[in-house]
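User: Please fill in residues for this 740-position structure.
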């Protein structure tokens, strides 16, 4: 039933109604939408201005936050107890100068290990008399099973571990903090980020910690420079299961990489020991991490693993997993060099690790000696623009989730049960609003997936790989335009003659009901990432539904622009959070498309991610489009830009790979030289052969002309020998070859 107050006649004109079409209203229509001298909607220019200014500000704030790095420190301009990037970068340069450091190689097991020993001896010569520095070289042999991919067993012999223990002379402790990195790299890669920079950081942390003569060491620190991580964690297993010092370890910090440079992200914590993540959140000067990364990583979606699994499963100790994830294009390639590690990147990681280590081993409030005293299950965590980190134990998060999922539903029930005339049949309006919103989500997903399938079938997959901005124009704008069109047209048909602010209120309440129900369901399955959604629903419940309820009431005749500005200001915190997470997600998954294999079309993966991000970013914002006088030029502009992007993708210029000064996005090919010798039961040679085995790691594979004749045109090199076994023997040399 339509409120008679909203269907008024003026100067003999017909009733005011909202057209189901998108044309710009005439001057008479605009005049009829005025009441008491105040507009009830926004002009198209005002709508463009508001959202352009708002999202431009959000974009630049998030961009600054993501790219911000502190100024590097030098030994001359810093205290001895401070971390200095200058010194750490010297260590990094040496490790990278050794070239690829494969486990078992001279570069890794001899040169890198000797450099670490020499550096530790220099540190040992200048430490405080109250400290003791012990050095041990371990070469363990063992075997274990690993629940990774499909699961398998691993056997290793004489892998190399270089271990350093720093303890107090007068009061040695039985409680130690383990700091772990690995010296080895994959074949063919210098491994600057994975993981030479972590070794450099820990060497400098060691120097800074041992230079402090004023704060006594209450607990021991064990630095593990393990030499066989790329062989799927063999060296870390040898330490945690065989070394006598491992028994005193109560917690660990593991340094890894899935990219090159940028910020190190906390992407795994626990298990079931929130005190470590809390210590990081309270003491790291530049906290950066999200529980979403943890849930994604542990779900197996990301094809990678770290020593965290070994310490957790075989050592039964809690820890924190850190990794560089920016610029994942160069991960495990020959382009992972020192030039990718920007100034300030090392300083940031060093400041964070040193501050947390100081707290854990020097502070009387540290829970390292008795971690079980603060064992409250899983911990949800996330940072806000790298300024501070929010942490909540899952038990407390569950209570808050229930409160702020049931609370809005109670609020909506009160609105529906209101006896006021304007609330008559309000539940029907809410239901219709929910149907329209859900329909727009389905339409958005359908359009972006249809585009992704079309691009893939046309043979132009991964055009966005070296041009991440194409994702916005190719999938983002069509998806957003679909959301706008479906919401606006459907609302104009279903809610005829409805006051603009009343219509906006209906859709706001519909969104509030949907997200409260989603929050309730996510809380039921105990996802820690519900913290993100809670922080989105919470401010709107408090601000719009409680503190400023009268301002946003549809009968309030305040200036519409003022209302919109106040509403957008209330949305700003969670818009920044969601925009930041979207940036991080695309920064992770776009380079990941280069090693997802040949089965799953990467355009479908990115299209699905974009659809999900659009739904998250647009919730509670799309209700404002019902205040706009017209959106036809906005939608037309989006579709025009999308059409241009699609034409570019279908052209011959959309080559997916690039290696230049702006971006390095190579195609990954595994090239293996195989020499095989087959033996019979009589131990006589039955057959010998050899050849080159090329294996592509991305979806386009050999469909893209990247110079497939290069292998035939390359000069032949003699094989260095064959490793023989009974019945079957082979010699293989494998490395990443980059075609461009």
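Assistant: Residues filled in for all 740 positions:
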């Amino acid at each position: 039933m339509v409120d008679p107050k909203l269907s008024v006649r003026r100067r003999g004109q017909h009733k005011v109604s909202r057209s189901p079409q998108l044309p710009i209203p005439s001057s008479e229509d605009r005049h009829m939408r005025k009441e008491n001298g105040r507009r009830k909607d926004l002009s198209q220019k005002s709508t463009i201005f508001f959202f352009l200014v708002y999202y431009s500000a959000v974009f630049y704030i998030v961009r600054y936050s993501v790219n911000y790095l502190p100024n590097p420190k030098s030994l001359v301009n810093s205290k001895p107890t401070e971390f200095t990037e200058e010194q750490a970068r010297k260590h990094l340069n040496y490790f990278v100068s050794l070239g690829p450091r494969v486990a078992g190689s001279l570069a890794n097991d001899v040169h890198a290990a000797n450099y670490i020993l020499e550096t530790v001896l220099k540190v040992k010569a200048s430490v405080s008399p109250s400290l003791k520095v012990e050095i041990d070289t371990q070469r363990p042999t063992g075997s274990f099973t690993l629940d990774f991919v499909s699961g398998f067993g691993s056997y290793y012999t004489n892998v190399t571990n270089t271990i350093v223990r720093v303890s107090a002379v007068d009061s040695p402790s039985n409680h130690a903090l383990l700091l772990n990195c690995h010296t080895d790299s994959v074949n063919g890669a210098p491994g600057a980020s994975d993981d030479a920079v972590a070794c450099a950081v820990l060497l400098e942390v060691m120097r800074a910690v041992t230079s402090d003569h004023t704060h006594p060491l209450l607990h021991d620190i064990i630095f593990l420079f393990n030499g066989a991580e790329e062989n799927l964690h063999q060296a870390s297993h040898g330490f945690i299961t065989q070394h006598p010092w491992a028994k005193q370890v109560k917690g660990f910090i593991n340094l890894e990489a899935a990219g090159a440079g940028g910020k190190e992200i906390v992407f795994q914590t626990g298990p079931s020991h929130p005190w470590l993540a809390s210590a990081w959140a309270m003491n790291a000067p530049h906290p950066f991490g999200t529980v979403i990364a943890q849930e994604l990583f542990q779900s197996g979606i990301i094809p990678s693993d770290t020593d965290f699994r070994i310490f957790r499963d075989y050592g039964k100790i809690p820890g924190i997993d850190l990794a560089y994830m920016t610029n994942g294009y160069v991960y495990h390639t020959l382009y992972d060099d020192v030039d990718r590690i920007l100034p300030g990147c090392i300083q940031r990681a060093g400041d964070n690790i040193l501050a947390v280590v100081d707290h854990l081993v020097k502070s009387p409030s540290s829970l390292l000696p008795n971690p079980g005293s603060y064992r409250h299950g899983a911990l949800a965590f996330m940072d806000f623009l790298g300024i501070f980190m929010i942490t909540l134990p899952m038990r407390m998060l569950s209570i808050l989730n229930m409160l702020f999922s049931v609370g809005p539903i109670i609020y909506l029930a009160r609105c529906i049960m209101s006896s006021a005339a304007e609330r008559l049949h309000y539940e029907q309006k809410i239901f219709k609003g929910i149907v329209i919103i859900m329909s727009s989500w389905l339409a958005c997903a359908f359009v972006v997936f249809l585009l992704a399938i079309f691009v893939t079938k046309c043979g132009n997959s991964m055009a966005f790989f070296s041009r991440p901005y194409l994702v916005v124009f190719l999938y983002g704008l069509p998806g957003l335009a679909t959301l706008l069109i479906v919401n606006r047209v459907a609302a104009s048909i279903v809610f005829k003659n409805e006051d603009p602010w009343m219509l906006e209120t209906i859709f706001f309440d519909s969104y509030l009901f949907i997200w409260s129900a989603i929050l309730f369901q996510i809380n039921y399955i105990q996802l820690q990432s519900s913290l993100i959604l809670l922080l989105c629903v919470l401010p709107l419940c408090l601000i719009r539904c409680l503190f400023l309820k009268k301002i946003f009431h549809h009968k309030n005749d305040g200036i519409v622009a003022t209302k919109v500005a106040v509403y957008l200001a209330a949305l700003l915190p969670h818009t920044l959070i969601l925009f930041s997470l979207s940036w991080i997600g695309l920064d992770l998954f776009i380079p990941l498309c280069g090693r997802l294999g040949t089965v799953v079309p990467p355009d479908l993966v990115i299209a699905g991610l974009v659809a999900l991000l659009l739904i998250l970013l647009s919730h509670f914002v799309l209700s404002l489009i019902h205040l706009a006088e017209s959106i036809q030029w906005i939608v037309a502009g989006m579709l025009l830009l999308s059409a241009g992007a699609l034409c570019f993708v279908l052209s011959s210029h959309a080559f997916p790979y690039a290696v230049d000064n702006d971006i390095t996005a190579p195609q990954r090919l595994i090239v293996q030289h195989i020499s095989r010798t087959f033996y019979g039961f009589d131990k006589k040679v039955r057959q010998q052969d050899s050849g080159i085995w090329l294996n592509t790691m991305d979806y386009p594979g050999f469909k893209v002309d990247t110079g497939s004749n290069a292998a035939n045109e390359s000069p032949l090199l003699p094989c260095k020998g064959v490793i023989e076994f009974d019945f079957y023997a082979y010699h293989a040399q494998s490395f990443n070859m980059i075609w461009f």
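For context: Residues 1-38, 720-740 have pLDDT under 50 and may be disordered.
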